[in-house]
Design brief:
This is PAP2 superfamily protein. It is a single chain. The chain is mainly alpha-helical and about 280 residues long. It has one domain. A two-stranded antiparallel ribbon has the order 1-2.
């Protein structure tokens, strides 16, 4: 915790220096710039993006707190069916194709995730493809932010996993036991962060649907495997979307990379209909 606190303070200090002394020059690089300078430029944008996302709560307005309240209320409502939902998924796990489970487990793992990101960025860097570089910077900076938040939350909340003998409302705060590191889902955070970052690069709705469908495999596989509760996946999904949108907005506003058209985001809202609850996204 001490090291994490020092890191966050350092991020804010760097951003303050940037504003006062312009040590992170915001002048855009061109296609003729050397690969080394392109990499340094991308690193700067990534660091500033992380700092921006962590600083946003200090600038929230009424509508932002209203959104947060809706998310909390929706999560509490969803948690009332956690035990029943988990039993349903685990009961139907034998009917899920082994290939789907394998893909979900592998894709959401940190090793495969970061190898994929490194490959994507490497191609973008050495071919000097700005769109690929921007997408990679968005993925990496968002992943760092969501990864740090979910790691802290897992330990802080210490929620039991479904495959334990405990119910979904069992918590051991600040526990180091892996069996009490369920909230939120790490596989979901990584998978949705990447899927949402990539989907934002497409204008075609069906392309977005395809990317999100692939991104949903890992979260669903964790539910069928009995590794997480429904709310673990739900909150991880919301967290990933919020962070990606925040950093993407920062890169857009600062004109760090070329955006071919006006920024376009998906509007996400919790919906309540009768005895049903859901998360809807409007393109």
């Amino acid at each position: 915790m001490k090291n994490i606190s020092i890191f966050i303070v350092a991020i804010f200090f760097i951003l303050k220096l940037n504003a006062q002394q312009n040590i992170f020059n915001t002048e855009k690089v061109s296609d003729t710039t050397s690969i080394g300078k392109l990499a340094l430029y991308d690193l700067k944008q990534g660091i500033k993006g992380v700092g921006y996302s962590f600083s946003r709560p200090f600038f929230w307005k009424k509508k932002d707190f209203t959104t947060l309240s809706s998310i909390i209320i929706g999560s509490l409502a969803l948690s009332t069916i956690d035990d029943e939902a988990s039993a349903f998924f685990i009961r139907n796990e034998p009917h899920v194709p082994e290939l789907i489970q394998e893909i979900g487990t592998r894709f959401g793992s940190p090793q495969v995730y970061f190898i994929t990101n490194a490959t994507l960025y490497g191609v973008g860097l050495f071919t000097k493809n700005e769109k690929l570089r921007k997408t990679s910077v968005l993925i990496i900076s968002s992943s760092f932010t969501t990864g740090l938040l979910q790691s802290l939350s897992k330990t802080a909340f210490g929620r039991t996993r479904p495959n334990n003998v405990y119910k979904s409302n069992e918590f051991r705060f600040w526990s180091n036991e892996p069996s009490f590191h369920s909230f939120p889902s790490g596989h979901t955070v990584l998978s949705i962060t990447m899927a949402h970052s990539i989907a934002k690069q497409f204008d075609n709705t069906w392309s977005k649907v395809g990317v999100y469908t692939l991104g949903s495999i890992a979260p669903l596989s964790r539910l069928f495997a009995g590794a997480h509760w429904l709310t673990d996946v739900g909150i991880a999904t919301v967290l990933s979307i919020v962070v990606v949108d925040s950093i993407d907005k920062f890169l857009f506003k600062t004109n760090a990379y070329d955006y071919s058209k006006k920024e376009k985001q998906i509007s996400w809202n919790f919906t309540f209909v009768g005895n049903k609850i859901g998360l809807t996204g409007s393109f």
